[in-house]
């Protein structure tokens, strides 16, 4: 039995099938020293040597693959690309390293868009989740600037002709606003380039903030701070696989302790902050300067509290916090 070359490479974590088809078309893939072409297949039990851009690829057999999925809270300003020639931050900079294969992003978000972005080691899963035929729901919180009336909402739900064809929101729910600023939750079942922004632009209003809050039934909660990630449990991975008609995964890379909600919010925040400090600090002087600044800030706060007659809390009182402060937001549901 044989499999298409792009399917084998996707399973080995080299990208989605769509990305790999482009690599093959551009002559970047070879089999046993010969440039591959679309339609090439690999037989089961083969010993062929496959290379991408001259680098040998460790091919993964179906029985060896463990499907992993990460939920990442993308901040604004990060790019959905592996390498940026200008040295700007990318969404792959903060992800955990893999011993083999690589993380494949499930779709993209614009640099100015924040929120939930899924990553997986299974290129076939990524390809199916992105494909419009599976109609996987994507929900966004969007803030727009301008007058919005009922006819505009009807237009957006019924469909608008864009430069690349008809597009529409499956659902639009008003979430409040003041003056010319209005917030909505909108839902799509496809992921065309800048589709949410272009739909609102067609009605003469401008998107001032855009954040993805849901992909399928995977919600972005307060458990994941900006720039942080969390690995999905096996039942969540299999929910995604079942949704796109893939066989369930039997194994997970999470430990037993990891399945008890993995890392705490504070621990993730500290990891994100350390990552940012490593990027910003190019020299020991930068680290010393930051430490001195923290000490000075701490002393100033203590002095200010003393002058105002407030005593600095100590012991258990210093660690006491509002139990509702970091409570995850309740997922938004529709009747």
Automatic annotation (TrEMBL):
It comes from Photobacterium proteolyticum. Gene3D superfamilies: Pseudouridine synthase (3.30.2350.10), RNA-binding S4 domain (3.10.290.10). Residues 260-273, 286-298, 322-335 have a biased composition (Basic residues). Keywords: Isomerase, RNA-binding, rRNA processing. Belongs to the pseudouridine synthase RsuA family. This is Pseudouridine synthase. Residues 274-285 have a biased composition (Basic and acidic residues). GO terms for cellular component: cytosol. The keyword Ubl conjugation does not apply. The keyword RNA-binding applies. It comes from the Bacteria. The lineage of its organism: Bacteria, Pseudomonadati, Pseudomonadota, Gammaproteobacteria, Vibrionales. GO terms for biological process: enzyme-directed rRNA pseudouridine synthesis. It catalyses: uridine(2605) in 23S rRNA = pseudouridine(2605) in 23S rRNA. Residues 3-74 form the RNA-binding S4 domain. GO terms for molecular function: 23S rRNA pseudouridine(2605) synthase activity; RNA binding. Its EC number is 5.4.99.-. SMART domains: S4 (SM00363). Responsible for synthesis of pseudouridine from uracil-2605 in 23S ribosomal RNA. Residues 255-335 are annotated as: Disordered.
């Amino acid at each position: 039995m044989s499999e298409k070359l792009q399917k084998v490479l996707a399973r080995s974590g080299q990208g989605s099938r769509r990305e790999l088809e482009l690599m093959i078309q551009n002559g970047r893939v070879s089999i046993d020293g010969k440039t591959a072409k679309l339609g090439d297949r690999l037989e089961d039990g083969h010993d062929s040597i496959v290379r991408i851009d001259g680098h040998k690829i460790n091919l993964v057999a179906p029985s060896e693959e463990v499907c992993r999925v990460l939920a990442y809270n993308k901040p604004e300003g990060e790019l959905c690309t592996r390498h940026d020639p200008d040295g700007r931050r990318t969404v792959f900079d903060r992800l955990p390293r893999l011993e083999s294969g690589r993380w494949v992003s499930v779709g993209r978000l614009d640099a100015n868009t924040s929120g939930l972005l899924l990553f997986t080691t299974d290129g076939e899963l990524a390809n199916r989740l992105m494909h419009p035929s599976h109609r996987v729901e994507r929900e966004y919180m969007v803030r727009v600037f301008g007058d919005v009336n009922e006819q505009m909402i009807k237009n957006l739900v019924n469909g608008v002709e864009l430069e690349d064809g008809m597009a529409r929101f499956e659902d639009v729910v008003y979430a409040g606003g003041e003056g010319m600023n209005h917030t909505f939750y909108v839902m799509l079942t496809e992921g065309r380039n800048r589709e949410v922004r272009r739909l609102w632009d067609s009605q003469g209003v401008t998107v001032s903030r855009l954040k993805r809050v849901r992909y399928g039934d995977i919600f972005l909660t307060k458990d994941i701070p900006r720039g942080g990630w969390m690995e999905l449990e096996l039942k969540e991975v299999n929910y995604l696989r079942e949704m796109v008609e893939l066989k369930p995964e039997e194994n997970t890379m999470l430990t037993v302790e990891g399945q008890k909600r993995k890392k705490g919010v504070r621990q993730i925040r500290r990891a994100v902050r350390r990552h940012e400090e490593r990027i910003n600090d190019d020299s020991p002087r930068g680290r010393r300067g930051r430490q001195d600044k923290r000490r000075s800030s701490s002393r100033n706060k203590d002095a200010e509290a003393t002058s105002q007659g407030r005593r600095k809390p100590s012991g258990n009182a210093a660690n006491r916090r509002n139990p509702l402060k970091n409570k995850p937001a309740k997922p938004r549901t529709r009747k």
